[in-house]
Specification:
By secondary structure, this protein is an alpha/beta fold. The protein contains 22 helices and 16 strands.
C-alpha cells in the first residue's frame, strides 16, 4: 500500500479495482522500404477514413460537448492535409505507411505546441489520431480505454479527449492520470460527468502490482492497495438543471458564457444554454497561414462563429501570438525567453496594421452576424497599453474595448486599467503560470497551476474589488470558471461573468443559482484564508454548507 498525491480536478471520493489504459504505441519502424511506394501510400487514406468513421459512430451515440469532441477528433483523422503529407513521405522517402503517418502527425503536433496555450493542449489530440491510424495500418488494437467488465478506477499516463468524451460514469468510478493538469480535457469532462479525478500523479506507474485504489478528487490523494476492494462510487446528486437565467438565488446577475474557437464550439455552446461568449479565440484563422489572411477571409471566418449568437454578447480576443506562438507572416525572430517576450498585444505596437485589419474584419463580422461584439486584447501589462488598445478598437467602429488580466502587473494595476477600458477578463490559466513561474504545460508543476491557489484567488479579488468600485464588469475566462464550487468563490470575489467550455455551462449555472451572493462572499473569504489549494477547497465547501 502507498499514498500518492496529485491535483484534484473533479470532486468526490471513490474506491474499487483498477483498470489500466493501454500504453501509447511505440514508434513505428522506418523500414524496410516498401516495394511499391505508390501502393503503400494508397493505404493511408482508407485507414484514416476508417478511424474517422468509427469516431463519428461514437459521436452519434452521445450529445453535447462529448459529441463535439468526438466529431472534431474524427475530422482531424480524416484531414486531407495530414494524409497528403504522410503519402508524400512514403513516395519521397520510401517510408512504410505507419512511419509516414507518425512523422507527419509529429509535425502537426509540434506546430500546435509552438502555438502555446490552448493550441498546445490540442497536440494531445493529434497524437491520439496518429496512434489510431498507425494501429489501423498495422492491424493492431489501438491504445485507449479497455472494455471494462466491472466498475473500476481508470489509470492512465494521460487520456486523449476522444477517450474521455464517452466514458460511462456507471463503469468508471474515478480517473487518475500521471500527466495532465487542471485545464486538461480530462479535468473538464470529468467534472461534467461527475467522476472524481486526480491528475499529475507523479510515480503512478512506478508500481504496477497494486490491484485496488481509493481516490479523493478533493484532496488529490490516491491510496493504492495490494488487493482489489469493493467498488464504491462517489455520491452523485440529481441530474443538474438550470433555468438559464444567470443569477444567484437572490437575483445578483452573473453571466454564464462559453469559450469558443470554432463553429463546432459555437454550436455546442448554444445547445448548452450559454448566454453568449466570454472568449472567442481568433488564432484558428491564422495558424495554417503562411501569409496574413485577407480581411475578407477573416471576416467570413469570424461571422460563421458569431452567427449562432445573434443578439447575444460575444467577447472577441484579438490575435494572441508572438515569439512563443510563432506565425510565419509575423517574422518574430528568436528571443532568449519568448514566454516573456513580444507576444499578445505587444506584437501590435510595431505591427499596428495587423491589429487594425483584424479589427476591421471583426467589425464586419459583427455587422454580418448581428452578435453584440466586444473586443479585448491579450497580454496587457499597463494602463497605457490598455488605453492605446481601446483607442484602436474605437477607431475601428467597435463600441466596447477590454483587456485580459493575465499578467500579475495588470492585476495589480486593475483600477487604473479599468479607468480606460470598458471591462476586463481574467485569464486564470496564464495568470497562474506567471504568478508561480510554472509552465502550465509541465505536468511536474501542475499543482502550482491549480486555480484554487490562494495567491491566485487574492489577485482575482483585487481585480473584482476594482471592478466593483468603478462599476465595470470583471469576467473570468480561464478554466477556473468551469469548476462549480470555485465559480461561486469567484462570484464572491466580485467576478460578474464566468466563461468556460460548453460542457460546464449547466453545472456552473446551477451552482451559481443555488445560493445567495452573501453565501458566495462567505465562501470566498474562507478560501482566501487558506494556505494551500486543498485547504481553500475545504474551507469554501464548509462555508457553503
Amino acid at each position: 500500500m502507498s499514498r500518492l498525491s496529485g491535483v484534484g480536478v473533479s470532486s468526490g471520493r471513490a474506491s474499487g479495482p483498477v483498470a489500466r489504459v493501454s500504453e501509447p504505441l511505440p514508434e513505428p519502424a522506418s523500414g524496410p522500404a516498401p516495394a511499391d511506394p505508390a501502393a503503400e501510400a494508397a493505404r493511408i487514406r482508407p485507414a484514416a477514413d476508417a478511424v474517422g468513421e468509427r469516431l463519428f459512430q461514437r459521436a452519434s451515440r452521445v450529445d453535447g460537448d462529448a459529441k463535439a469532441i468526438l466529431e472534431t477528433t474524427a475530422a482531424m483523422a480524416m484531414d486531407p492535409a495530414l494524409t497528403s503529407q504522410a503519402e508524400q513521405l512514403v513516395i519521397n522517402r520510401s517510408l512504410p505507411a505507419a512511419r509516414a503517418v507518425h512523422e507527419a502527425a509529429g509535425g502537426f503536433a509540434d506546430a500546435l505546441r509552438s502555438a502555446g496555450g490552448y493550441m498546445a493542449e490540442r497536440a494531445r489530440d493529434v497524437q491520439d489520431v496518429r496512434d489510431r491510424i498507425v494501429a489501423e495500418l498495422l492491424g493492431i488494437t489501438p491504445p485507449g480505454v479497455p472494455e471494462l467488465e466491472e466498475p473500476s478506477i481508470l489509470l492512465a499516463h494521460d487520456l486523449a479527449p476522444a477517450d474521455t468524451a464517452d466514458l460511462d460514469p456507471a463503469m468508471v468510478l474515478a480517473l487518475v492520470t500521471e500527466e495532465g493538469g487542471p485545464t486538461s480535457h480530462t479535468a473538464i469532462l470529468a467534472r461534467a460527468l461527475e467522476i472524481p479525478a486526480v491528475v499529475a500523479v507523479r510515480g503512478l506507474f512506478d508500481d504496477t502490482r497494486f490491484a485496488g485504489a481509493v481516490v479523493d478528487g478533493d484532496t488529490g490523494e490516491v491510496e493504492t492497495l495490494d488487493e482489489a476492494v469493493p467498488a464504491e462510487a462517489a455520491q452523485r446528486g440529481a441530474p443538474t438543471e438550470w433555468d438559464g437565467a444567470g443569477a444567484t438565488a437572490d437575483g445578483h446577475v452573473v453571466k454564464i458564457v462559453a469559450n469558443v474557437g470554432s463553429v463546432a464550439d459555437a454550436r455546442t455552446a448554444v445547445e448548452a444554454g450559454a448566454q453568449g461568449v466570454g472568449l472567442f479565440r481568433t488564432e484558428f484563422c491564422y495558424l495554417a497561414a503562411d501569409d496574413e489572411p485577407p480581411v475578407a477571409t477573416q471576416r467570413s471566418a469570424y461571422a460563421a462563429i458569431l452567427a449562432p449568437f445573434a443578439g447575444k454578447p460575444v467577447v472577441v480576443r484579438t490575435l494572441d501570438a508572438g515569439a512563443d506562438k510563432p506565425l510565419a507572416f509575423l517574422d518574430m525572430g528568436v528571443e532568449p525567453n519568448p514566454a516573456l517576450g513580444v507576444r499578445g498585444v505587444r506584437v501590435s505596437f510595431d505591427r499596428q496594421g495587423v491589429l487594425d485589419r483584424q479589427l476591421e474584419a471583426i467589425a464586419g463580422a459583427a455587422a454580418d452576424s448581428g452578435a453584440d461584439v466586444s473586443v479585448m486584447a491579450p497580454m496587457v501589462a499597463t494602463a497605457s497599453e490598455a488605453s492605446w488598445f481601446a483607442g484602436r478598437v474605437r477607431a475601428a467602429g467597435l463600441g466596447r474595448a477590454g483587456v485580459m488580466i493575465e499578467v500579475p502587473a495588470a492585476a495589480l494595476s486593475a483600477r487604473e486599467i479599468l479607468e480606460v477600458v470598458d471591462f476586463v477578463s481574467i485569464g486564470t490559466n496564464d495568470l497562474a503560470q506567471y504568478v508561480f513561474a510554472a509552465d502550465r504545460m509541465a505536468g511536474a508543476l501542475a499543482a502550482l497551476n491549480d486555480p484554487w491557489q490562494p495567491a491566485l484567488l487574492r489577485l482575482v479579488g483585487m481585480v473584482g474589488e476594482a471592478g466593483a468600485e468603478l462599476g465595470k464588469p470583471v469576467g473570468v475566462c480561464g478554466e477556473a470558471a468551469a469548476d462549480p464550487l470555485l465559480a461561486r468563490v469567484l462570484v464572491g470575489l466580485g467576478v460578474t461573468s464566468l466563461s468556460m467550455v460548453p460542457a460546464a455551462v449547466t453545472g456552473v449555472g446551477a451552482a451559481v443559482a443555488g445560493g445567495s451572493l452573501d453565501a458566495c462572499r462567505r465562501a470566498a473569504e474562507a478560501a482566501l484564508g487558506a494556505s494551500d489549494p486543498a485547504g481553500a477547497r475545504q474551507r469554501a465547501r464548509a462555508a457553503l454548507g
